[in-house]
């Protein structure tokens, strides 16, 4: 995976976010972190480039799906991984294209997130 990839990780659970962010950093990615929708929106507005978004579905001030619209306004083909401990009941609200949208249920392995990012960003760059 190219070390130039920048991922926005939105997760309100500090331990989960920290562990995943460190794993992705150790894997050569650049990681921007947010623990709520407001922080994520500010990063989306300010960041010059995002290569992928990893968003928890349930956040204290909204839901991760609501962040996809402003992000895809800036980067139309942005790959998004939705993380949920409640299944993927809202799958019908996504594009349905696995190169653009994936659901990963909690609990997950750190490697499964990296693997999905690798797969989605290599598909997006092909």
Automatic annotation (TrEMBL):
The keyword Metal-binding does not apply. The modification 4-aspartylphosphate is found at residue 56. GO terms for biological process: phosphorelay signal transduction system. Residues 6-121 form the Response regulatory domain. Keywords: Phosphoprotein. InterPro entries: Bact_response_regulator, CheY-like_superfamily, Sig_transdc_resp-reg_receiver. It comes from the Bacteria. This is Response regulatory domain-containing protein.
């Amino acid at each position: 995976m190219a070390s130039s990839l920048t991922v926005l990780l939105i997760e309100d659970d500090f331990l989960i976010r920290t562990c995943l962010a460190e794993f992705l950093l150790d894997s050569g990615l650049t990681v921007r972190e947010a623990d709520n929708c407001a922080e994520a929106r500010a990063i989306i507005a300010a960041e010059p480039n995002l290569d992928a978004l990893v968003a928890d579905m349930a956040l204290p001030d909204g839901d991760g799906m609501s962040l996809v619209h402003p992000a895809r306004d800036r980067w139309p083909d942005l790959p998004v991984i939705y993380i949920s401990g409640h299944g993927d009941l809202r799958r019908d609200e996504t594009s349905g294209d696995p190169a653009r949208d994936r659901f990963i249920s909690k609990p997950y392995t750190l490697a499964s997130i990296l693997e999905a990012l690798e797969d989605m960003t290599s598909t997006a760059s092909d």
